[in-house]
Design goal:
Helix content: 10-25%
Number of helices: 7
Mean pLDDT: 87
Shape: globular
Oligomer: single chain
Radius of gyration: 18 Å
Number of strands: 17
Largest sheet: 9 strands, mixed
Order of helices and strands: HHEEEEEEEEEHHEEEEEHHHEEE
Strand order of the largest sheet: 1-2-5-6-7-8-11-12-13
Length: 332
């Protein structure tokens, strides 16, 4: 995990999770805590969503199924305060079993496994740090959870498109006035809702400006059911796409676009992952992938997850050490 950003900067991390919908003063609009601004549900759908919430381990980790529609461009009042670490990789050496894996390295916050199936987008499973919603360790009855679809930190949709993020201190963005601006976590929701392939996901990124103001800049790993993968980075203000080759691709907190593989492997976690994937020829099942994730776990790793990009199987282990949880996303 990289902790190079000053605390004062991190206190302003609102832009990380919100679209730039501004009020008269130019500050992002806010809504009362009891009036979720993402939900486009009727009352019955909202109640069914809240009723589906259940605690499943002592992280604490919760599960919830979102029923009905939401506006993926609505704002939130999240105020996270620490930089991301994270380790991610795609193992696609066996085209019949491509796999996306990630460690989420972060503060000790509650998390949520969220199922969504919007009427105008793809069904997905994603993981959310619900502290970004202002929600505490016991979210029972807290209707701010109805904004949870807006903040996927990683996830996979029914077409086998997966995405995750990590800090990249070197990234910079340059706004195009002809494009809408979206928060740098929110873009994951747009990708999961709208993209079936890596190319389509890259197009979603290309259609938007990303807002890194006030928080850690990010880069992203994408993969799809064909085994294709790509890293999205921002170099000198411009979007760069680094395509995966050789059956695998990895991402930690060092830039990869235009950087030699030898230089990338100087990063300890990247080097560990790259060595394991090279030995395996990019062929790993979920059990083996979790062993690789375990080898690069940090003291602040909150969850380790694998997504089967063709099988729809999700395997999740949290920092509690309480065993593996499995989920199945029906694939289309």
């Amino acid at each position: 995990m990289r902790r190079t950003l000053p605390a004062a900067t991190m206190a302003l991390l609102l832009a990380l999770t919100s679209c730039t919908t501004a009020g008269p003063s130019g500050a992002p609009n806010s809504v009362p805590d009891d009036m979720p601004n993402a939900s486009r549900q009727d009352a019955a759908q909202a109640e069914r969503t809240m009723a589906s919430l259940r605690r499943v381990d002592d992280l604490p980790l919760y599960e919830m199924t979102y029923v009905g529609a939401y506006d993926p461009t609505a704002g939130t009042d999240a105020t996270p305060s620490s930089p991301f670490g994270c380790s991610l990789f795609v193992a696609a050496g066996d085209p019949a079993r491509p796999l996306f894996a990630r460690n989420f390295d972060w503060d000790a916050n509650p998390a949520l496994v969220l199922r969504t199936d919007p009427p105008d987008g793809y069904a997905a499973i994603s993981l959310v740090d619900i502290s970004y919603l202002g929600v505490g360790a016991d979210p029972t009855g807290d209707r701010r959870l109805l904004d949870a679809p807006l903040l996927p930190f990683d996830g996979m949709n029914e077409r086998g498109l997966a995405v995750g993020l990590a800090a990249d201190d070197a990234a910079t963005v340059r706004a195009d006035p002809g494009k809408p601006t979206v928060g740098s976590v929110r873009i994951l929701r747009l990708v999961l809702d709208r993209a079936a392939t890596v190319d389509e996901a890259v197009a979603v990124f290309s259609r938007h400006n990303l807002d890194f103001d006030g928080g850690p800049a990010l880069h992203y790993l994408l993969a799809d059911a064909t085994g294709a993968s790509a890293v999205i980075e921002f170099v000198d203000g411009e979007l760069r796409v680094e395509r995966g080759t050789g059956g695998w691709q990895a991402l930690t907190n060092v830039p990869v676009a235009g950087v030699s593989e030898q230089r990338r492997r100087e990063d300890h976690r990247y080097g560990q992952i790259a060595a394991a994937l090279s030995r395996a020829g990019g062929v790993l099942d979920a059990t083996a992938a979790h062993r690789v994730l375990a080898s690069v776990r940090q003291g602040h790793t909150r969850w380790s997850v694998t997504y089967g990009l063709r099988s729809g199987e999700v395997r999740l282990v949290t920092a509690t050490g309480g065993g593996e949880r499995r989920y199945q996303l029906p694939m289309s």
